[in-house]
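MODEL INPUT / OUTPUT PAIR
PAIR INDEX: 1
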Amino acid sequence: PPLLRASWRMQATSLVLLPLFLWQWQLLRKLQIRLQDVLILIGSSFCLGMHFGFWVWSLDHTSLVHSLLFVTSHPLVIVALMLILGQQTRRGHIWGTALGLLGALITLMDTENSGTVTLIGDMAAIAGAVAVVGYFYAGHHLRSTRQWPIFIYALPVTMLAGVWLGMASWALEESVGPLASNWGWFGWWEPEWVLAVAYLAFGPGLCGHTGLNTVMRYLPPVVVSVGMLLEPLLGGIIEWFWRGGTGPGFWTWVGAPMLLAGAGWVTLTNARSKD
């Protein structure tokens, strides 16, 4: 079940982060933690859980390329949020969003021609992009404004996300429960799963999401954001090899560059507006 798999990944990543959290434990005493910080932390974990829940679910219902294309479209979501909140936008925001949305609509045309691509799967990936924006904003506040050390922030957020996903899996997915024989909350310890989940924890978990939070302190956000737009390209290569040469559909080839270009345009505009 996808929500359970997402919970397993969060659990395993939490175990990987635990020694690093303990290493930074002495820094926790220097923090002046307020109730608002705790609430933001909980909100961040909820957004992270929704992000992974929607994204992993989408992987079961659409192609890897489509899933990565839409889940990395968060720069477009940020612009939409700016418009809703009445924040100032620049011409690049509008044109980049328009180009990205046009590319998304063109890409969605492949849902009619491919059995591996579905509209509901693509929509779930988009929901994952919406959710991760909340995670980004919360993380930026706690890491930059409140000066939380990386692992002091990453461990509780990841651990709580695993809890929310486990509860959602228990409520929504069949044959899932805390101690279920087939799909238990801690079933990833089974020999058939432990290596795969461990890879997700050390690779995409520690080096991926936690790594992004870390390098944000040393690299401009625009570099990190544009770098994330390479995920669909890498995912397409992986899917091509995994499925023995089955590549994206025609409309994906047409729309995907427009979607990525629009997201990149928005990201670069954000960087210029902060200079």
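PAIR INDEX: 2
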Amino acid sequence: MIRGVSDEDVRAGQFRYDVALSFAGEDRAFVEVTAAKLRELGVRVFYDDYEKVELWGKDLYEHLDYVYQRAARFCVIFVSEHYARKVWTNHERKSAQARAITEAGEYLLPFRFDETELPSLRRTVGYLDSSTVDAATLAALINMKLGPRVREKYFPPEPDALFEALDATADEEKEAVRGVASGFMLSLGRMTEEERWLLGTIFAVGCPSEMPQNMHVELDIIRRDLAMPIAEVQSKLRGMSALGVEMEIRESGDEGASHEDATIAISWSDHTIHPDDSLAQEFAFERSTEIAAAMLEVGMDHYCLECARDRIVAMDFSGLAQND
């Protein structure tokens, strides 16, 4: 634990980064691939090239001390002869080691390019090395080390569970699904957290009998599940029309029925233009709601209500990949 950051805070995403990478410039080519692969996996990584604007004008001595001592859950040190003789890498190492001294579990994760010794880094500390682990594999191992977590705005590179749910087997079908899914991610990103959860709840509890046209559900169920007045539900959904969300209120025909007995039908349309992919454009017109519903259903499957909410709000669709 460090400066009031508990294990619970770590699990809740208290740290700004999942991992910070400390390396010498001569080793950048390898580290750059690792950083790119980590990003693909939805890992929040501190890699200097990704932070150019953030670092611009800052007191780097002070800021890097903060990053390597306080801002990340893990720190990977890329050990090499170049690393050992650089002023800035030694500063980063000392900051990381100051954190490691007070940490109950692992924090420093050494990766070796050679047998160079670093001050205060014991040879008994488990390490990986470049003779047996390439950059992509290292990224995958870091991701495994991080374990299950909520990722922000994450769509897996290979959403095979989504393809299976939509019976998309041909490569062109998969690309079309990816195109529409990208449009849905864009729409979700423009919504508030409460709007995302409202839409996710409707798709989760709604009836799919009229798919791919819409999902429908009784308004009273949404009111009860979200503890949100019906008027507010309708207002929020109307406010999402520019993002492709369309709403239809179907009043009950039963005698004496109230407004609460009405059913709401929701659809989503991909407004993204796919000029170079005619099948994606066709899917956008005909299957947008179906793909969006499948993303929410498959992506949030196996989670409890609270965890599903966290992932919808964060736009974490890691569940769309069977082995992510």
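PAIR 2 NOTE: Strands lie at 17-22, 45-46, 72-79, 108-112, 128-129, 215-218, 245-250, 263-268.
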